[in-house]
Amino acid sequence: MGVCIFCEIIAGRAKASVVHADDSVVAILDHKPATAGHVLVIPRTHVAGLADADDAIGTAIWRAARRVSAALRASGLRCEGVRLSLADGEAAGQDVFHLHLHVVPRYPGDGVVVTADWKKRSRDLLDQDAALIREALAGHPGQARS
Ligand SMILES: [Zn+2]
Q1: Bridge partner residues of 84 (DSSP)
Q2: Would you write out the chain's pLDDT as a tens digit for each of its 146 residues?
Q3: Catalytic pick from 38, 98, 100, 102?
Q4: Ligand 1: distance of its center to the CA of 139 in Å?
Q5: Where in this chain does the record put each HIT domain (predicted)?
Q6: What are the φ and ψ backbone dihedral angles of 50, each rounded to 5 degrees?
Q7: Residue 134 alpha carbon to ligand 1 centre in Å
């Protein structure tokens, strides 16, 4: 495994523009922002993804993201709305495998594009999907298929 850039930043060995730091998280500006003020909230503990992030980490990044969101709206940077996103896994677009929550200032005409097929799914298929997820939540994945 290579060096984790976020761990390097947290350790002070790599540069970042820090907007917030506490015992649990560090929040920095994305060096390739979707819009100016695009923040990454990063837990100090190295966890790759959601499966490794316990509720304490979740609470810490959520608390920081809410504070940062309010600060962005008050900052003077253009921010009329905020989009939170978290990519868990390469297929989801995760690029750094140290969990991080994006806090993106949004405004009309900001050029940010979030796209998908958005095709309507039938109620039957929605109910089948829901059954699979409920089974997995109950610890019995796949049983609803039979
Ligand atoms: Zn790391």
Answers
A1: 103
A2: 589 999 999 999 999 999 999 999 999 999 999 999 999 999 999 999 999 999 999 999 999 999 999 999 999 999 999 999 999 999 999 999 999 999 999 999 999 998 999 999 999 999 999 999 999 999 977 655 44
A3: 100
A4: 29
A5: 5-113
A6: -60, -35
A7: 32
Q: Tell me how far the alpha carbon of residue 16 lies from the centroid of ligand 1, in angstroms.
A: 14
**C-alpha distances out from residue 58 to 93, 95, 106, Å:** 20, 19, 23
**How many alpha carbons lie under 13 Å from residue 22 in its C-beta half-sphere?**
11
Q: How much distance in Å is there from the Cα of 98 to the middle of ligand 1?
A: 5
Q: Does the pTM exceed 0.85?
A: yes
60 and 68 Cβ atoms separated by less than 8 Å: no
